From TrEMBL, chains A, B:
<keyword id="KW-0784">Thiamine biosynthesis</keyword>
<dbReference type="InterPro" id="IPR036921">
    <property type="entry name" value="PurM-like_N_sf"/>
</dbReference>
<comment type="similarity">
    <text>Belongs to the thiamine-monophosphate kinase family.</text>
</comment>
<feature type="binding site">
    <location>
        <position position="148"/>
    </location>
    <ligand>
        <name>ATP</name>
    </ligand>
</feature>
<keyword id="KW-0808">Transferase</keyword>
<keyword id="KW-0460">Magnesium</keyword>
<feature type="binding site">
    <location>
        <position position="105"/>
    </location>
    <ligand>
        <name>ATP</name>
    </ligand>
</feature>
<feature type="binding site">
    <location>
        <position position="46"/>
    </location>
    <ligand>
        <name>Mg(2+) 2</name>
    </ligand>
</feature>
<feature type="binding site">
    <location>
        <begin position="122"/>
        <end position="123"/>
    </location>
    <ligand>
        <name>ATP</name>
    </ligand>
</feature>
<dbReference type="InterPro" id="IPR010918">
    <property type="entry name" value="PurM-like_C_dom"/>
</dbReference>
<dbReference type="GO" id="GO:0009030">
    <property type="term" value="F:thiamine-phosphate kinase activity"/>
</dbReference>
<feature type="binding site">
    <location>
        <position position="123"/>
    </location>
    <ligand>
        <name>Mg(2+) 1</name>
    </ligand>
</feature>
<feature type="binding site">
    <location>
        <position position="46"/>
    </location>
    <ligand>
        <name>Mg(2+) 1</name>
    </ligand>
</feature>
<dbReference type="InterPro" id="IPR036676">
    <property type="entry name" value="PurM-like_C_sf"/>
</dbReference>
<feature type="binding site">
    <location>
        <position position="29"/>
    </location>
    <ligand>
        <name>Mg(2+) 3</name>
    </ligand>
</feature>
<feature type="binding site">
    <location>
        <position position="44"/>
    </location>
    <ligand>
        <name>Mg(2+) 4</name>
    </ligand>
</feature>
<feature type="binding site">
    <location>
        <position position="230"/>
    </location>
    <ligand>
        <name>Mg(2+) 3</name>
    </ligand>
</feature>
Length: 342, 342
């Protein structure tokens, strides 16, 4: 017999989910965390709705859980914060199986354990649509928080990895016929990019080592020379958001945007570019920093990391093709997915 | 023309909501907060779903916002934490009006401003059902955190105010014919108890002053002599949860449970008792502490505060009527609302 959440109720479900939480976190109205002395608290929230952000068709509960956790850890990484814990609010229709919920938590925990991050509390309620609300907490040195608003003219724009892979994986799951012309290894790489994205917390110690060794540490007279955010809503969105917050423009070089190797001879150049710019959910970091440090960072990261452009005066984000096959193009947010159009 | 959220999109809506947030909190992937030295971070999450936790029939957007904020501040109060901020995740169907969302934020802000608590960030996404995910952050002295698990045999059980008023207000909104035999003042008191509940953050300085002046401060050898939680799921639930977490039982005295004055000659004794025990959402605190301090606390709080029972050996929560009109009754969680039964 398949047990559904309506069979065991909120209390019964909470009891089953307790094994995913550290025992000291259980049983009170709120969870208690301790930030290290001198560290600031960094907080980020995501709401994920079935049918909008994940689907039973393309996403197992384990993958939905992993992706939700990864998205929030990625937001912390984007600000140079070390994860401390996440709180999970879960809205469920009565007919969801208890097993589905346990598998969701299993996936979340798999991702979180890689980064020693506990689930520190939450809420389980009835809802007509499965909804996952995650709030992640991290701690950061207040002088070393990476913000969107700190880009300056002349900065190199670094991406920490390839773009478009997650969206390609989603398209393959939605339209299996697209698999033609893709070998197994490439297929699996793209699917995995969609199902198991990796938050780039690994970039931060490397970035910090480079800044330290080149005397780019922030002081009262020289703030942190790095701006950035993650590319969860696509590369174009990230660059546009940084430019808007920093009151600058940018030139992106089409031929330097790193695509997954699988895109060669599978997608057209136009498709590959659209996936990379607007596909989203690659969860790479987009960082603006001085060229010398940018070069070192790209070299040390390898694996698709690249300098994709430069911060400029003005407010336009221009996409340029050095081969001049494609005309110059001004990027805008409105080319991205419309979130409220049903 | 009525503007709907689908007309302005996620970005447009976020821009409209920014006026409810402090300017320094806007624009990054995450918000940054600073806890005072030596303070722990206390975190609580609530998920509220339209049709389950609030309804357009009984609740204006302002009231829904107020109630959501109050519920989370109440969870912080229950642990003796001072609010620092809340993060708001909002799921919205495209046809919701922008005005509705602004009024929701207006109500949240009205409640939060009473406690100097900013909205520090959030997320706005499309959802088939209006969903509100709130995570509240507070700070607390780690030695002074009130937990459910610290009740000991002999403790007096204090409630900080009357119970059943919020549920009565809801019933009046759902069934206007119940208003017979209630004068205007009483009607308004009950409606307001439902629409504008007050988190009892005001209790904490008083409690702390009493503990300090009677040398009940926690030391390494004597932990905090207070257990507690809030009564958001009803008085019975609060006492049962405390007893379970503390591995003790309790005797509640029927005649000491404080009801709203409006219940006299309006509800039967049975109804009044059920509303108080299982109605929920009164957001009072239920505190277990030594009798001497309990008496002082009740005296200082006034306004419906009362000692309603005693912590006992065992695990049963017994309801006793000193007039012996009602037989003794063992309370259980399963008498409360079933959350997943549709």
């Amino acid at each position: 017999m398949t047990i559904k959440v309506r069979d065991i109720g909120e209390q019964g479900l909470l009891e089953k989910l307790q094994r995913f939480c550290p025992p000291e976190m259980i049983g009170d109205d709120a969870a208690v965390l301790v930030t290290a002395p001198g560290q600031s608290l960094v907080v980020t929230t995501d709401l994920l709705v079935e049918g909008v952000h994940f689907s039973h068709v393309t996403t197992s509960p384990e993958d939905a859980g992993w992706r939700a956790a990864a998205a929030n850890l990625s937001d912390l990484a984007a600000m140079n914060a070390l994860p401390m814990g996440i709180a999970v609010g879960l809205g469920l229709p009565g007919e969801v199986t208890v097993s589905w919920v346990e598998r969701l938590y299993q996936g979340m925990t798999e991702c979180l354990q890689k980064y020693n991050t506990p689930i520190v509390g939450g809420d389980v309620v009835r809802s007509p649509v499965t909804t996952l609300a995650i709030t992640a907490f991290g701690q950061a040195d207040p002088n070393r928080i990476i913000r969107r608003s700190a880009a300056v003219v002349g900065d190199a724009i670094v991406v920490t990895g390839v773009h478009g892979a997650s969206h390609a994986g989603l398209q393959l799951l939605l339209h299996p016929e697209l698999r033609q012309n893709l070998n197994d290894a490439k297929y699996k790489t793209l699917i995995k990019a969609h199902q198991r994205p990796q938050p780039r917390l690994d970039v931060l110690p490397i970035l910090w080592a480079i800044l330290t060794s080149t005397s780019q540490l922030p002081t009262p007279n020289s703030p942190l020379p790095v701006a950035g955010m993650d590319s969860s809503d696509g590369l174009a969105d990230a660059v546009l958001q940084i430019c808007r917050a920093s009151d600058v423009g940018a030139v992106l070089e089409h031929r330097q945007i790193p695509f997954p190797e699988a895109f060669n001879r599978w997608l057209t150049e136009e498709q590959a570019l659209e996936y990379a710019l607007y596909g989203g959910e690659d969860f790479e970091l987009v960082l603006c920093l001085p060229t010398e440090q940018a070069n070192t960072l790209v070299e040390m990261l390898g694996q698709g990391a690249a300098i994709v452009g430069t911060i400029t005066l003005g407010s336009q984000v221009l996409l340029h093709d050095k081969y001049e096959k494609f005309p110059d193009r001004i990027l805008s947010l409105s080319q991205g997915f419309q979130h409220f159009s049903d």
